[in-house]
Structures are given as structure tokens and as C-alpha cells.
Amino acid sequence: MKYGILVAFYEKIEATTKRLEMTDLLVQLFRQVPPEEIREVVYLTEGRIAPDYAGVELGLAEKLVIRVLAQVTGLGDKPIEALWKEKGDLGLVAETAIQERQQAAITAGEALSVRKVFDNLGAIAEAAGEGSQQAKIDRLVELLRDAQPGEAKYIVRTVVGKMRLGVADMTIVDALAAAFATKAEKDAVERAYNVSSDLGDVARVLASKGIGGLGDVKLQVGRPILSMLCERVPTLQETFERLGRCAFEYKYDGLRMQVHLTRKGVQIFSRRLENITSQFPEIVEAVRGAFLAKDGIIEGEGVPVDPNTGDFLPFQEVSHRRGRKFGVEAMAAELPVTLFLFDCLLLDGEDLTMRTYEERRQILKDVVRENERVKFAEVLVTDNEAEAERFFECAIQQGCEGLVAKALDSVYEAGARGYKWVKLKRDYQAAMTDTVDLVVVGGFAGRGKRAGTWGALLCAAYDKAADTFKTACKLGTGFSDELLFSFPQKFGPYALEHRHPRVDSELEADAWFAPNVVLEVLGSEITLSPVHTAAMGAIREGSGLAIRFPRFTGRWRDDKKAEDATTVDELLDMYRRQLKAVKE
Ligand code: ATP
Predict the structure, then answer these.
(1) What is the pTM of this model?
(2) Torsion of CA 466, 467, 472, 476, to 10 degrees
(3) Is the pLDDT of residue 105 over 60?
(4) Same domain, 403 and 347
(5) Pocket test for ligand 1, best of 378, 404, 410, 424 (most atoms within 8 A of CB)
């Protein structure tokens, strides 16, 4: 097939903003394409040469394309650069420049075929290492030498990664269904795409085998599946109305990871289907050890966890790994990510997406052995509102966004956002405006860079009525290295073999200190907590109060004795005022 035919369609598609017209044009195009070339045509129409997840980068530098245009047209660098300034789109520059060349009677060679364009683009993407720059230039020269002005426009836009046709994936799905299937069969086309994330392959199968062939488009290791998404519901009550007895899972606030495993290797895909394997070497290694079967696809949320406090950290803390070639290992060692698994979609060749949530979760449990970096997402199956509410509080206190509730009998609907999975987030985030002064009553052994000192401190408020100290947070943020390594000296004099009798704690610290040192702490808010003992039972049975995301302000309150610390009653007051502020 001639590339010029494709370009004629592109011109028309570009000229319309109406989705229906666009779809019609694509239908006409797809019906004309020989089946053995439709895969290539679909990729080219998406402005690429492979499915997105394959990570094949064309992205030639604009400077380099300018040089090629100057060479092919004989116009020289300066006039091309001037044209670029004027038009701001290298595709249009190419079109104009080739037109000028034609007027100068330098005729193009043989008409370009789709195959030739696709192969040369492939060679451009593949060229690597020494001499690759020249190889890329040569392949592009070959194309532009023979290109008509309109063809040059789209070739250049494709190589610089700015095709801009405005055709969405779903428009292509619609067009493929209209071209090769009946209306009733559209869902099957969509499902094939959702499962394979590869429109080129879906098109190839449809064009060559018809709708019946789509059974061949299977979930495969190495090829990501579109993620199942959640609807939002405002209350637990509505959740139960919709789902009945259901599974509640922590909604971790990190990055969704779809992990593909074979004996040979591990690949990690993001929710946008990018291959992000190289950014997370610690996950690659950890899932290798944790996964017990031959091959499979498992899914979860990756969250950076403070090695000292066990607190979840914002994902931004590790986002600088993106795009790095070097140093990622060191970053991973310093602040590792933990993967919280919630699904298993494929196991030893068997597609599990049509199995129920309950079955998949059981299979996940059977096939993964937890380790330090790979854990199961916390889950609670219940139909009891009070129980679910407590679980929600635990999630918030541990740094999660809320809960995701899942229908026990639901299948995995790739790419769908529906009410089989619903998310429950807080509709408020109360700000903690005032600092508190807490007493240090224990220490946790430092890890990683903090080995050799206390990596986090157990802090307590004073309970006047009982004359005891009740824990309210584990504090590991806000300390300089110098300060951290002065801890053994600072707390050594107060170290005890056992918990101090006036300290009331459900957490087991690595070292206990007599309550003496008071420090100032600011958190994001005060929350209910099942693990901290401050004001235990005052608001709700089995829940105490805790400071969420606590940070040392830098101020030691040497002027205060332990009994002068913030009291449990004051914490209660602050919590109630916080609630009131939210309601107002
Ligand atoms: P939000 O910004 O609320 O996360 P979103 O549009 O990014 O919205 P949603 O579908 O609303 O995505 O929420 C689902 C996301 O929550 C998932 O994509 C996943 O990354 C994350 N998540 C965290 N924990 C879970 C869990 N246990 N089960 C499913 N998804 C989870």
C-alpha cells in the first residue's frame, strides 16, 4: 500500500474535529488496507511503530531533523530554522521545504510505500551505540528524499513524536469494530484491546481472521492489561447498599504496578502502561523471591516506606528516579518502595480475569510468599458498618487515602470504571494548626543510613488523671543526620531494660527510656488509632488518638519536665476542635 493513501486520510482526519467523522474516515481507511499491513497502519495512525507499552522511542531531536531537512532540500540550515520559528511545527516546515525543492525541479524518487516508511522508522528507533546517529540520519534522508510534501509532514511529525492527529484509542476501537464486526460484536473488540493494550495486533487479527479470531488475543505475560478502576462513593452505607458483604482493602497512596513474571525476568508496568521496570530494582528483586509459580501477572500499589518508622511516604519522594539511567540502585537502597499486592490476573498461562475477586485473592495468597518489600494489601471482609469504619480509621492512621471496597463475586474488568470496585476517601482533611510537646519514651533501632542510632522515637502525651504517659506517635522525621547520631548520647542516661512502669504502650519499642526528654512536634492532623494509647476509648472503643505524619520542629523543650508535656485531655480537645472546624 502506498503511504500517500494514508496521508490523504490523515489530511482529512486532521481537518475535522468531529469524532463521528473521524471514525468514518478511519473505517474507510481500514477497509482499504491489505490485512497484512493493517497492524502497521494502526501504529502509524497512532504516531508510533509499536504498542505504547513496548517503549519504542522514535523521538529524534528537532535539531537533527533540521539538519536532515537542510541536507535533503539543499536549502541550508538557516532558512529551515527560520521556517521553524515562523511555523512552530517541524512537520509543516518539512512540507514547505519539500514543496520548495519540488519547485526547484528536484524530483522525488519512487513513491513511498507504507512498508518502507514503517521499516525505516523501525531502523531509526533501533539504531543504538556508536554510529547510530548517522544511521538514523541516513534512514530519514532516504524517506524524505522520496517524500511528497504531505508525506514529509507526517513522517517528520512521527519521528519527533508529535503526530497530533487527535485520534483517541477508543476511536480506533470503534472504527475497527465498524469495519470488521457487527454492532453487537463491538464489546468483543473492546475487550481484546483492554486485555492486550495492542490495537495493532487487534486490527491484524480482525482483518485476517474476523471477529472469531479475537479469541487468540489473550492476556499474556509481557503485555500489560488495562487496569480496572473504581467509582467513588460517599459513605459506607452506600457501599453496603451497592455491594452487600464485601472486601475492604486499604487504598494505598502510591503508584499502581502491574508486575509480569517469568522464570527469565520481571517487568513492571504503570497504570498508563509504561514500562517502569528500571525505576524499581528493589521490587524486581523482591517479587522474584516472593513469587512461587512459573509465570504470572500480579498487581498492587507501590509505596515508599520510611525504613525507620514504617510510615508511608508521599510518592514524590521517589519520583526523581524517573528517567534516570544511573544511580537508581542507590536511591532504591536509601528509600525503598514496598509493593502491596491486591490481585492476580494470570497464573501459569491461565487467564484469571473471569474468576471472582475471592478466588483471585486466594490464588494470590497461595502463589506469593510475603517478604520485606512485597506484602499483601490489608483486607477485611465484612458486612458490619462499625467494623468497616474502624478499618477505615486504621487505613488513614497508617497513611493510606481510605479504602477500596470490592464486590466478592466481581470479575476483573480490564479498563472499566464501575461500581464493582468503589473507593472511599475522607471528604475532609483537617489541618493540625498547633504543635504539641511530647515525651520520648522509647526508641526503634535505626536501619540503612540510620544504623547505629535510634531511627525513630516513641513519643507520648501525659495522662494527668492516671499519672501515666500514653503513646501518640512514632517520630522519625525532622532530624538531621548529626542530630540522629547524637541520640545514643542524649537518651543513653534514660535507657531502661524494660518499659517504664508509668508508660502505657501497645507498641514494642527496641529500647525504653524513662520519661524525661520533651520535644515539639507538628503533624498533619490528629486521627483515631488502634495502636496508640492516648485517650484510648474516649472517642471510640478500641481507638486512641495519634498524630498523623509527625515531624520534629527542631525545638527541644528542655524547659519542660515530662509532666509538663501536652496532656491527653488537650489532645482530645484538639481532636474535637478539628472535627468541629471540618463540619463548619
Ligand atoms: P485517585 O486519584 O482517587 O486514586 P484515580 O483516578 O487515580 O483516582 P481510581 O480508580 O479512582 O484512580 O482509584 C484507584 C487507584 O487506587 C488505583 O489505580 C490504584 O492505583 C490505587 N489503589 C490503592 N490501593 C488499592 C487497592 N487495594 N485496590 C485497588 N486499587 C488501589
Answers:
(1) 0.80
(2) -160
(3) no
(4) yes
(5) 404
